Amino acid sequence: MNQPKKTTVATLGEHRIIQIIQNHLTPMLNMPVPFGDDVSAVNLNETLAAVLKTDMLVAKTDVPEEMSLFQAARKAIVMNVSDFASKGVQPIAALVALGLPKGFTQKNIEDIADGLNAGAQEYGAYIIGGDTSEASDLIISISLYGTAQKPTLMLRSGAKPGDILAVTGLFGKSAAGLRFLLGDCSASKNAKTLIDAVLTPKARLYEGLALSGCGGVSASMDSSDGLAWTLHELARLSNVGFELTEVPIAPEVKRFAELNGLEPSELALFGGEEYELVVTVKPEKWEATVAAVEAVGGQLLPIGKATEQKQILLKTKDKLLAIEARGWEHFKSQP
Amino acid sequence: MNQPKKTTVATLGEHRIIQIIQNHLTPMLNMPVPFGDDVSAVNLNETLAAVLKTDMLVAKTDVPEEMSLFQAARKAIVMNVSDFASKGVQPIAALVALGLPKGFTQKNIEDIADGLNAGAQEYGAYIIGGDTSEASDLIISISLYGTAQKPTLMLRSGAKPGDILAVTGLFGKSAAGLRFLLGDCSASKNAKTLIDAVLTPKARLYEGLALSGCGGVSASMDSSDGLAWTLHELARLSNVGFELTEVPIAPEVKRFAELNGLEPSELALFGGEEYELVVTVKPEKWEATVAAVEAVGGQLLPIGKATEQKQILLKTKDKLLAIEARGWEHFKSQP
Lengths: 335, 335
Prior knowledge:
The structure is a homodimer.
Chain A: H1 9-12, H2 14-23, E1 40-43, E2 48-58, H3 59-62, H4 69-87, E3 93-100, H5 106-122, E4 126-134, E5 139-149, E6 164-167, H6 173-181, H7 191-199, H8 205-213, E7 217-222, H9 227-238, E8 241-244, H10 251-260, H11 264-270, E9 277-281, H12 286-295, E10 301-307, E11 312-315, E12 320-322
Parallel strand pairs in A: 3-4, 8-11
Antiparallel strand pairs in A: 1-2, 2-5, 3-5, 6-9, 6-10, 7-9, 8-10, 11-12
């Protein structure tokens, strides 16, 4: 008889691991945000919830060689703020658990502290506490805290057929930038834009707060696991499908793809580590929603609509292409 | 000219590292709990605060070989609950950021999830979310959340000369247990008690809630960095000293020390990884405070008093001995 092959985290992948863990936990009743959404939350009273998020940056997998410690620490904050942004929640305070390799110097610590502080201040939050331990990798584990009026929380699960699918920006820059940094592509004059997308990502917090404030959003998620994966998650949790009229590709990414003989939509759909918001908007609220996002200096780009049919399809001139459920996944993906 | 030697985290030590980081952060105004206390907190309104804590368990330094993954995960929760206990705060929810080595199996993940859940449920809390990443070490970073009426928070800083110094249990068992597990000592019939102290530590949550509820405590801290270090911290932040009439040593530790030719007070004062509460109590409230702790099945043992003189002294038959400010410290200490 064949021995079953041992299942390790590398074969399971991050999504399945989280599922396994969840199956072993006693669920809290009446959670204002379900397990597995971008953030967690606890009821404070009838209308108010405390909102919490933790996300860990591990240098080995999340930090390219060219990224400074300041940038890595700032990114650890941005990753968490992006999840708050996707629910429309202002972060108030962050705690930091640091795992530090033994050879780190005082200057290294100062750079990390400065990056954490810069990230927090950029989004109106404060670092109020933390913990340090010795570890083999540099680990920056952030916990973010805020409060929200429960009806304003934008969950992953509310999209309805006919809702407009939209994004807060164009995709592919961080995937292109990462390829450029890994040294197997050239980028000519777009290099700086692409590298900046990797080293200094931005969370769409002000867009998220504006989206939440105008009441037209039916579902929302951040795109840190990649656009394609995000679409599949929104579809699964909302019990809809999506028909895209276009893949929102940044012009710099189109040029980069052309220069290197790559498929631009591959970079835009399956890249990950990109912090745009992907939302669905009730059609009757579309114009007000766009206006609200533009009022804070952002943009909201329509890319398709939610459908009854439970597939993620891209409409081209003459046919409908299925978009696969692939994306960046810890344990499975290789940077 | 001599080159200055490079200062690394190993020479700085955890306490100095935290100080350096704090110096680089923009402080939040009106924090209900100052930076550097056992927990952090944010005002919710005039009287209520959200209480937050993050503490990271790293297998390499915090998990002896004999500790199972279930026990390690449970301990990660206990470490954080102990800090809540020391402030008198009920934990409500926990988030978990996991760093998992690539070879971990599904069974390993399940054991970790079960240990996390057991730890949370033991203290009335729920795991409501988290994140997983690949890491070289097993890392379990917990964030704990609760709320508290601000006047009930027991800070490190309120001890006054004349206050009674007290502890919720006897010390030295985890230091003795760890030495036994490391294989360089024998323990005869006490082995199980000592090993249990290492593998299945308990947080004094119900004692902490009782202490906070009766209003007699002027300062409080958990003893996870060791009794001696805890006394020095309480003294420094309260601007007092302490005169101890005895070192609270567990009888099993006295026997273990005798059997192995060790100094029992060394194990009790400088061991660390022990989760008792060290508190000061206003003398006029002493009896009510003891009664409150005993009502929840705990004990409160007087071991001395706070003094004007800023030293930590142990009164023996014929002299006063100074207790050094040593303890368990990440980066500096070797398990």
